[in-house]
Fold this protein.
Amino acid sequence: MKISHLNSFNVLFLLTFIFLAAVQPAFAQKTDETAQQREFSIEDKMERLFKEDETVEGVLKLLKERAEAKIKEKRRQQLLKTRISASGYAGLESNPLNDENEKTDVFIEEDFAFNWLPTFNKDFSADIGYRLANQTYMEQTDLSTFDHVWNAILKYYPFDSHLLMLQPGIEYDWLTYPLDETATYEDIRTFTKFKHYVGKEWHYGGKYEHSSKVYSDKLARDINKVDILGEARSDERNTVELYLQRYLGKKYSAKLRGKVYRNNSNDKYQEYYDYDGYRGYFTLAGSFLKDDKLYVTFTPDFEKKSYHHRVADNTAREDRVTQYKVDMYYTFTKNWELSYLLTRKFSSSNASGGEFDNMTNQVWFTYNF
């Protein structure tokens, strides 16, 4: 069985290599407006990769184990527990530049993730990981990215019931655009999360996060739109998030989530990157087929972003984005998973650069070592 898995994995990467060799990429210009709009998609991707959605049966099992305080593994096994995975993606995006001139493009992506998951005792555990992602667009090549993410999270249960979990953590993200260094940045995010189970049907939680982002090759500007020599553009963002989840029987759930944030930048021209925003989500999820091999979620969400002084039609700019997402995860075996994502996005704004539609179809295989 292991040999067949390896053969399948080799075939997948061989086909990817042949496809890349056959495509002749063409360089396309990416505007600053595009880079800003892409951050919305990057944020969504990060949330999906580090998602904490749980099946109902998984939660019931967790609560039972915590209540009984069972420790089945030897201490050495608990301290050396790891999770390793590799994924290969292919996708079709209708408007990757997020502008009025829609131009469909194909992208591929290879991901690798390693997490060390030590359990110190029944109240303390941790998640320390690294993720590498390489995304390549076939035509809009300057949208291609190379992403390194390091994270460390402590998980602590302060009460014997283990119904409340606290998660302080830190994450470092170095996102590079090989063909557009002005969009490359480093981002340090510190956060505290909590999750509280109320019986077997409800749980709620929240998160506070502070983000400090510095661009590698992009300067801040003064009030006259002149670059300030020696001062890289940097952003500080504070985010507060809350959610409520209800389990519907053993296979379904509904989740309501909302967050508010404020972004402040050192760019002084019209305070170009200073804005407030809020975003609301509603997610329906369910498990299907024998042994719950198919897990499906549907999420509509809405975001409003209000700039402080950035001019649009003689008033401050305001963007509104409505998005619909369908995620499907099918587990073939203990090691292999096939996933599909459909995203439909509609953006409206009182600035022409904020008016666009976009649709993404994405499929990927994941192998868990």
About this structure: The longest strand covers residues 227-248. The longest helix spans residues 2-22. Confidence is low (pLDDT under 50) at residues 1-28. The CA atoms of residues 164 and 196 lie 4 Å apart.
